[in-house]
Design brief:
heterotrimer; A alpha/beta (about 425); B mainly alpha (about 400); C mainly alpha (about 300); A: alpha/beta; D-Maltodextrin-Binding Protein, domain 2; 2 domains; 9-stranded mixed sheet; 17 helices; C: about 300 residues; mainly alpha; MetI-like fold; 15 helices; about 70% helix; about 0% strand; globular
């Protein structure tokens, strides 16, 4: 016991001394990337190139999606944290309004203008706030895609990937007749507002009017969308778990089709070699409005207002927009069997994905819409989520739930 | 002069002066005591007492992190947190015809169509006006109840808080008694000294010395409704449809209770074993001579003699159950739903974390912490009272 | 006749073992699931239905030379993760041990000194201090996190180990418990030492501490387990990847990993995180149990 104590003291002192030693050089840019460690390594691939060119250092750290909002907000509030952050599309507006971010649109007006020209247009409505300010620029893009096994669908009598909601439910019935317990799996944002956004857009609805003056989530389209989504869980057996194992389901046939983000295009063959070449992708089925608009996700990056190296940080961000930077990230992504989808349209073709699949992604990207940019959305999302759950997982009335959600969003909008 | 100040300063000074010298003199004489107490005391004042006081102040302010706190008074946070609104619901009538409405399978229909709906197999009951129409602005319905033939709705301004509070109380009310029953049962079953009992005790105690986050991680993979989830893997093999433990609001509480019992009963067992050891064997021998049955011995000797241990387990168990966080955060939490689906596993501390560190309403979060404190304080006093009432006469 | 009764009594006594042993197996199930998960290769992890035995045990979940190269059925093991941090997972191990050991030693030294003074010294205000300590035990620590966080910010301690160690040092419960224990020590012993010319500091270190060793052990276990599990406070004050403690690292993995392929790595990590306290427990089992039991009796 005594020896253990002595050892513990020595260890503690030694480690304490070690930890107290300065570990950072003077011009280090710290970056927090939201997502997994692999995501951080992808950013680092380009950052290291930039660092070597400019003689600076970059430190890239991963923050998980679960903790990222809280950690970044804590950084904004306490004035201590990274120089650059990457995070959800709405974070720029949110942290910007709290005074935590450099107003890029103002400080680097020319750069922003040229960035807007070369990047995917659909992302900007979610990034620019109602006053026209820009606090963050796109880092990467994610869209929903439908993944399916043509062979399994054919066995069940489904000839082609479903193109409409009706075709989808029809196809589910057919595969279920063939294999009991099989279903359509919604992976990313399952049973959450994120996935609900797909149906809402496809039904021709939206969360707010484009100018954010009114809440429209409880429109007729909203009700149609929510009722359809609920029916998938309640009548058509879609799994409700937080993150259904679509990959495995595609292998076993439990989920002969399903939808999730475009990252699976990069990782499915590696993760599940037994179905390599046996799966395809397609846009999501269109709703009553005839559109198959999907939710556009992805990340933005911005510079913390307390950063001591705003210009250097901006230089690094600009480097990510060069072909050199983008290719470094793309090849790192390939190495990690992930997909990094750059916001600059000219670099799409650098993606190491076969032509047909790339075309499918591009098609879906042309019909995608991001999260709302209206005030109070971030704060209200939690309550909206709960109300959606009452319909999706319980049996509450869709109209009533959406009315309540609209009331809450209106209250926050006017606050 | 000094003696005057001293007598105003401290009640114990009267005693001190009586024994000799002024308080100042007393203190100076005992300077070593103060000196040696200082290291702990200073840290204690800075990191325990001051934050408690500061938190009390913050709970009365509006404070969103980026700007300094603004003093607003009691109503600002506590008012918003605790406000209730009780309203009577009127019967719902059709706006155009004035006909009484009935609610059949989630839809309101006029009285004239009820018969047809019932024929179609729907269940109908009289419909009331929507709570949102009668409740004050910003209030949300917590529940409805009938009283004296009238229908009432109870609205609150922060429904998530009340949900969290209700969940926490419900959780504690189940976990604490069950933990005591299982802990005591195990202690009684394993109290004899034998190598088998020793091994079994060790097994039951293991969770107490295992990292809570590691355990929570494992549970997530046990309860997952996907194929790799242990329980559902087995169920599927037996031909039973998988249960979505983590995506079904009805399962959230049982899952939390199960995890807590699994993790806590061994700890209670050890405490009870220690208590059992302190009961003198003579008591049992005397009872045996009097011909007391095993059950009588349990209820008339063991349980009364274990009263201090029972009380300790009850008090500390309640306090820690009321503060549950890790299990909720890791097993149920996700980006949009910190407390699991439909807030079914949302308890007070995760809600506090969410308000304070995800929405940065720091003043509001401090108010939540104080409400939690008051409730725990109340429960502790209640528990201690209960312990006294049961005192053997 | 007597023999038959005794036999029945023994039978009854042994019948109780059926549910108890069954329950014990349930207790072990998560450990078993973790242990086999940590050593299963990927094809076995994603098998439907799940297998209860490891057919081809592997260390790949800890370190896989072929991992991270885009090869099927190979992912990076736990020691190849956290590439943004020098030392990776091993570093988090050291961080956790450093914080836990510092807090345990520091808080016990401070608390035992305070407990000695409160138990054996008589001075004005003694009862007030004692009441203050006891009263503070009633306050849930969550009450202090908001101001605590703001203080860390003011002190510039955000993202430093200081923020994990210093505020964790004053533990009123430990003072309370040790005081209860010390109060029963005979005063004559101390008086004798004082006559021999020993200072108060020396009395505390040389006489009191050795005498209350069981209580100290009990409290060090209590503090050690609490600190090893410390999650919420670390989540709030620690920012950079090299300062993560094990619970933070595990929680990061847990929230970014989904599906069967990475389950093995997660189980390997959970195994590594829970191992130190488990091993410590198995070595010092008697002291652990006695310590916990003491808190119940004296507390």
């Amino acid at each position: 016991m005594k020896r253990l104590f002595v050892f513990a003291v020595i260890f503690t002192l030694a480690f304490g001394a070690l930890a107290a030693m300065p570990t950072r050089a003077a011009t280090t840019i710290t970056v927090w990337t939201t997502g997994s460690e692999d995501d951080a390594l992808i950013f680092k691939a380009a950052a290291d190139l930039w660092a070597a060119k400019t003689g600076n250092e970059v430190k890239v750290e991963a923050v998980s999606w679960n903790d990222t909002y809280a950690k970044n907000l804590a950084a904004v509030t306490s004035g201590q944290g990274p120089d650059i952050f990457t995070g959800g599309l709405s974070y720029g507006i949110d942290f910007g309004s709290k005074g935590g971010l450099v107003n890029l649109g103002e400080k680097f007006a020319d750069d922003i203008k040229s960035m807007r020209e070369v990047t995917y247009q659909g992302v900007w409505p979610s990034i620019v706030n109602t006053a026209g300010e820009v606090f963050a620029v796109p880092y990467d893009l994610t869209v929903y895609l439908m993944y399916f096994r043509p062979d399994l669908l054919k066995e069940a009598g489904v000839e082609a990937a479903p193109k409409t909601w009706e075709e989808l439910t029809e196809a589910i019935k057919m595969v279920q007749a063939k294999t009991e317990g099989s279903a359509f799996a919604m992976q990313w944002g399952n049973a959450q507002w994120l996935y609900f956004a797909n149906y809402l857009y496809q039904a021709g609805g939206d969360f707010y009017t484009p100018d954010c003056s009114e809440v429209t989530i409880n429109s007729e389209a909203g009700v149609t969308a929510l009722e359809f989504m609920a029916s998938l869980y309640q009548e058509y057996g879609s799994p409700t778990d937080g993150w259904p194992d679509l990959e495995n389901g595609l292998v076993t046939g439990q989920y002969p089709f399903g939808a999730t983000g475009n990252w699976l295009v990069g990782s499915l063959d590696v993760g599940k070699p037994e179905i390599a070449g046996k799966w395809e992708i397609a846009p999501l089925p269109a709703g009553p409005s005839g559109k198959s608009t999907v939710f556009l996700g992805g990340r933005v990056m911005g510079i913390m207002s307390f950063s001591q190296n705003v210009d250097l940080a901006w230089d690094l961000i600009k480097f990510l927009y060069t072909e050199e930077g983008a290719s470094a990230m793309l090849s790192k992504a390939t190495e990690k069997s992930a997909i990094f989808f750059p916001p600059v349209t000219a670099y799409y073709d650098l993606l190491k994905v076969d032509a047909a699949k790339l075309e499918a992604i591009k098609t879906q990207l042309n019909d995608a819409k991001g999260p709302p940019n209206c005030p109070g959305w971030e704060e209200g999302a939690n309550e909206v989520q709960r109300l959606l759950d009452t319909v999706l997982l319980k049996d509450a009335d869709a109209q009533e739930a959406l009315d309540a959600a609209a009331a809450e969003l209106e209250r926050l909008l006017n606050e | 002069m000094t003696s005057l100040t001293a007598s105003q300063l401290d009640v114990s000074s009267a005693q001190a002066t009586a024994k000799g010298g002024t308080l100042f003199h007393q203190i100076w004489k005992r300077r070593t005591s103060y000196f040696l107490l200082t290291p702990f005391l200073v840290l204690f004042l800075i990191f325990v007492v001051f934050p408690i006081g500061a938190s009390a102040y913050l709970s009365l302010t509006e404070f969103k992190g980026t700007k300094p706190p603004v003093y607003k008074g009691f109503d600002e946070n506590f008012g918003a947190l605790l406000a209730l609104d009780l309203k009577e619901l009127t019967l719902a009538v059709d706006k155009t015809t004035g006909e009484q409405l009935y609610r059949c399978d989630r839809k309101n229909i006029p009285q004239s169509q009820v018969a047809a709906a019932k024929e179609a197999g729907q269940t109908c009951e009289i419909a009331y006006s929507r709570p949102a129409e009668v409740l004050n602005k910003g209030f949300r319905e917590l529940g409805q109840f009938n009283l004296l033939g009238k229908r009432f709705t109870l609205g609150v301004s922060d429904a998530r808080f009340w949900t969290a509070l209700w969940n926490t109380l419900r959780y504690s009310l189940i976990v604490v008694p069950l933990g005591i029953i299982f802990g005591l049962g195990l202690a009684l079953a394993l109290q004899r000294q034998s190598s088998v009992n020793y091994v079994l005790r060790t097994i039951f105690f293991l969770p107490s010395v295992t990292s809570t986050i590691a355990i929570a991680t494992i549970w997530r993979y046990i309860f997952s409704s996907e194929n790799y989830g242990l329980i559902n893997g087995v169920l599927t093999q037996l031909g039973i449809a998988p249960i979505t433990f983590l995506a079904n609001p009805d399962w959230t509480m049982p899952v939390l209770v199960l995890m807590a019992l699994w993790g806590g009963m061994g700890y209670n067992m050890i405490l009870f074993l220690a208590g059992l050891q302190s009961i003198s064997a003579e008591l049992y021998e005397a009872a045996a001579i009097d011909g007391a049955s095993q059950r009588q011995r349990l209820w008339q000797i063991t349980i009364p003699m274990l009263r201090p241990t029972l009380l300790y387990v009850l008090v500390t168990g309640t306090i820690s159950a009321m503060q549950i966080f890790d299990a909720v955060y890791v097993v149920l939490g996700s980006v949009e739903r910190i407390g699991g689906v439909l807030d079914s596993g949302l308890t007070v501390v995760p809600y506090l974390y969410d308000t304070g560190f995800a929405n940065f309403k720091l003043g509001y979060a401090a108010a939540i912490a104080w409400v939690l404190f008051m409730i725990i304080f109340g429960l502790t006093v209640l528990n201690l009272r209960l312990g006294r009432v049961n005192e053997p006469v | 006749m007597v023999g038959e009764n005794a036999l029945r009594a023994r039978l009854n006594r042994n019948l109780i073992y059926i549910p108890v042993v069954a329950l014990a197996l349930v207790m072990l199930l998560p450990y078993y699931w973790m242990a086999i998960g940590a050593f299963k290769p990927i094809p076995e992890l994603s098998r439907t239905p799940p297998s209860f035995f490891v057919e081809n045990p592997t260390f790949n979940n800890f370190y896989d030379e072929l991992g991270g190269k885009g090869l099927p059925e190979h992912v990076e093991g736990i020691f190849q993760r956290f590439q943004d941090t020098s030392g990776g997972f091993a570093r988090y191990y050291l961080n956790s041990i450093f914080v836990t050991v510092s807090v345990t030693i520091g808080s016990l030294i401070l608390a035992s000194l305070a407990a000695y003074i409160l138990a054996k010294h008589r001075f004005p205000g003694r009862n007030i201090f004692f009441m203050l300590f006891v009263a503070s035990m009633m306050v849930p620590w969550q009450v202090t996190i908001i101001p605590g966080f703001l203080m860390m910010k003011e002190f510039n301690w955000i993202n430093t180990f200081t923020a994990l160690i210093i505020p964790a040092l004053p533990k009123a419960f430990v003072v309370f418990f040790l005081r209860q224990y010390m109060i029963s020590l005979p005063d004559e012993l101390l008086d004798a030492a004082r006559i021999d010319g020993a200072g108060e500091f020396r009395i505390w270190w040389r006489i009191i501490l050795p005498l209350v060793r069981p209580a100290l052990t009990a409290m060090s276990i209590f503090v050690l387990l609490g600190e090893w599990n410390n999650f919420m406070w670390s989540l709030i004050v620690m920012q950079s990847s090299e300062n993560r403690t094990l619970p933070l690292a595990l929680s990061l993995l847990s929230s970014t990993f989904n599906g069967a392929n990475t389950m093995g790595v997660l189980m390997a990590a959970a195994l590594l995180v829970s191992l130190p306290t488990l091993v410590l427990f198995l070595i010092f089992q008697k002291q652990f149990i006695r310590g916990i039991a003491l808190t119940g009796i004296k507390g």
